[in-house]
Amino acid sequence: MSLCAAVTAMIFGQFTALGANTALLASMGATAELVLALVVVAVSLGSLSAGWWLRPYPVLALLIAAMAWALAPTWAPLIPASRTLPGWRAALNPDADILETIKLAGVAAVALTAAVLARTRVRAIRLTRWLVVGGGLYVLLSLWLWRWDPFSVWGVSKGAHTWSFTGSLLNANAAGCIFGMISLLALGLTQSMSRSLDLHAPRLRELLLFGAAGFGVVGALAATALTGSRTSLILTAVLTTLLAVIDLTRIKDSARLPRLIGAGALGLILLAVALGVGLAPIAAKAGLHEEFGSRLAAYRDYLKAAKAVPWSGYGLGSFPMVNAAILPSGLMDDRWSFNAAHCAPLQAALEGGLPFLMLLAAALALATGQIVHAWFARKAASAVSIAALAAALLAFGCALVDIALNVPAVAAFAAAVLGLAWGSSAGLDLPARAENLSRLG
């Protein structure tokens, strides 16, 4: 339980510190993530079966290979022959390359930590409870910060997002992604608890947790709408509907009607909250057509730059330098402040090269495939693990068109929920002996 609390404090502590979006805060956060992962693995090592470890090994191997390749622009120039290879160059900023690789290692460590802590269904629910309670408190803190000073966070100016609700971050879109993930995770916990909660003789602790989960669903969705982030709100609405449909299809006939009525009522409440809170911030944003055209033009320029060095990239953390070098004179006002490509796969290819992108994609695809395969093999997917995977998909969806995963705290939270789903599914289709050992742990 203390380790679950430590993970929650580490993630939401980074959120409150502006998302750990500076070099110093990011390095401190990554160090804490790596140290906590070592502690969790050391404490849990004796109770983890050999069969359980068959899952993380190939995924971790791919991530380690990706990190080694990411450092290639830093170490490869030491090899004379590499200087003449086509599509290869030295890192523009070796220090940033090393820092970004350490941050990536920290994100991988968070995923492993969550997977170990959520290695059984009971443990997964325990970790989810901590994350949902932490998320609810973070929503309250964010609203208080906005009430206290709507134009800055902890005295730091929001810059281009001065007029937006950003929580404790400086970017409204990244904040919307966080709140959407909290809402989805809270919905999964609500669905799970609604099956086990005894309303005839409820315990106070369970009622308080159920209330906190319900607040997480509604409050975090309202916060998502308040940010004005269209991508986050649309994806949250779609994934919330999907979670509700999946939950209803898993209910027995005798209980389906009451749950259907409850789901309908909750859906109407969420729709009213989203529309009531989100219409004004979204309407204040620039036109979608103009923004899409501008973003598409930027993608074309970044893709052209990436094609020039397809193997090595320019080095992790080099995007601001590349952007400044290729910025057309007529678009200075639009893109001068871009510190990210607003498309995670494109930025990964630009900075780390195509092999780096492929290794990362392979690791994510393999982890997701393991989760889904385990669910279908035993037809035993818990509500919290499905919601955790949905929250991870929300983060990746937002990262396709925005900077969500460029914020270290958001990347850590996405890794945590993906690790939660990954770890809780790991024992589902193991051989009997390995599964029993896993349950004993």
Briefly characterize the structure.
By secondary structure, the protein is mostly helical. The protein has helices spanning 2-16, 23-44, 50-53, 56-70, 72-75, 94-117, 121-148, 172-196, 204-227, 230-249, 253-283, 288-308, 319-326, 332-335, 344-352, 354-378, 383-399, 408-425, 432-440, and strands at residues 152-153, 156-157.
Plain-language structure description:
The longest helix is centred in the middle third of the chain and has 31 residues, at about 255-285. The chain has helices at about 1-15, 25-45, 50-55, 55-70, 70-75, 95-115, 120-150, 170-195, 205-225, 230-250, 255-285, 290-310, 320-325, 330-335, 345-350, 355-380, 385-400, 410-425, 430-440, and strands at about 150-155, 155. The relative contact order is 0.16. α7 (about 120-150) runs antiparallel to α18 (about 410-425). The chain contains 19 helices and 2 strands. The protein has one domain. The protein is mostly helical and about 450 residues long.
How are the secondary structure elements laid out?
Layout: H1 2-16, H2 23-44, H3 50-53, H4 56-70, H5 72-75, H6 94-117, H7 121-148, E1 152-153, E2 156-157, H8 172-196, H9 204-227, H10 230-249, H11 253-283, H12 288-308, H13 319-326, H14 332-335, H15 344-352, H16 354-378, H17 383-399, H18 408-425, H19 432-440
Antiparallel strand pairs: 1-2
Helix pairs in contact: 1-2, 1-7, 1-18, 2-6, 4-6, 4-16, 6-18, 7-8, 7-9, 7-18, 8-9, 8-10, 8-17, 8-18, 9-11, 10-11, 10-17, 12-15, 15-16, 16-18, 17-18
